[in-house]
Design brief:
alpha+beta; four-stranded antiparallel beta sheet; 12 strands; elongated
């Protein structure tokens, strides 16, 4: 039974034309009720919390709650609020920042971005599409080779790190689940035969192909196709051939990848 999914908006910025926006970073005791205490305080001051995130610090006894808030409905000065917040029993530290321009607040208090404790960056799909387009304009068919090899290197590195801890099928499930969490696409294992070194993977809304959805006569995945080649070559210990047999770029429902041992190794 498929899950009901909700959009995950990265904590980055907020805009309200008529709002009085501020950003807060509150270091808390990592204990039940800590967030509730701060939220109750803001509610009592008629302050609307717009968006935020919560994470445990490197010290497991501490956590950070970062959020944007609209103070329009409150008569409080932000400096006075900070003094009161610091008096709450669960609060250890408080930082705040104001809007860049009227109505626009951008996260300036949290850096760097990490995913699974690894430093990461975020790029819009539109930006990726522009980069891919420029590669094809400059290098022609050679761009496909470049993107494929970039993906393959990334896949090899990821598979090496996971297969040291897990069996192959479990590692593959983890790797593909992380692709969804990181916004690449929602992947499903249709087939995994370790003995024959074969697999079939389908992906919904693959980031690489979405910009071309329904507008191409050919399949468009090169980077993710290479990524799978890197993953499975590490898992199977052999050179593999990854074919994208279906693609949303040419009107198919999903992108479908068939993984097989390279023909040269089967002779």
């Amino acid at each position: 039974m498929p899950y009901k999914r909700y959009q995950k908006d990265l904590f980055c910025s907020a805009y309200s034309k008529d709002g009085y926006l501020f950003q807060f970073a509150v270091k808390l005791k990592n204990a039940p009720g800590a967030i509730a205490e701060v939220a109750k305080f803001f509610s009592s001051k008629h302050i609307n919390i717009l968006q935020g995130f919560h994470m445990v610090c490197s010290n497991p006894e501490e956590a950070v709650w970062g959020f944007f808030a609209d103070l329009k409905g409150s008569n409080e000065r932000v400096e006075d609020l900070i003094k009161e917040i610091k008096k709450l029993s669960s609060v250890l530290e408080v930082e705040f920042s104001g809007p860049i321009i009227d109505g626009l607040i951008v996260d300036e208090l949290h850096f760097p971005i990490t995913v699974l404790n690894e430093r990461s960056i975020v790029m819009k799909i539109k930006t990726f599409a522009g980069c891919f387009k420029r590669l094809y304009e400059k290098f022609g068919s050679g761009a496909a080779f470049i993107l494929y090899e970039m993906g393959k290197a990334a896949g090899e590195e990821k598979a090496q790190s996971e297969r040291e801890k897990l069996d192959k099928l479990t590692a593959l499930k983890v790797i593909l689940a992380e692709r969804a969490a990181k916004g690449w696409g929602m992947a499903k294992i249709e087939k995994f035969d370790e003995e024959k070194a074969e697999a079939i993977i389908t992906v919904q809304e693959l980031f690489e192909c979405i910009p071309f959805q329904g507008r191409s006569k050919e399949t468009k995945s090169q980077f993710f196709r290479g990524y799978l080649a890197g993953v499975f070559s590490q898992f199977f210990g052999k050179s593999v051939l990854v074919t994208e047999s279906e693609c949303i770029a040419k009107g198919d429902k999903n992108c479908k990848f068939i993984i097989q041992v390279h023909s040269e190794e089967t002779n």
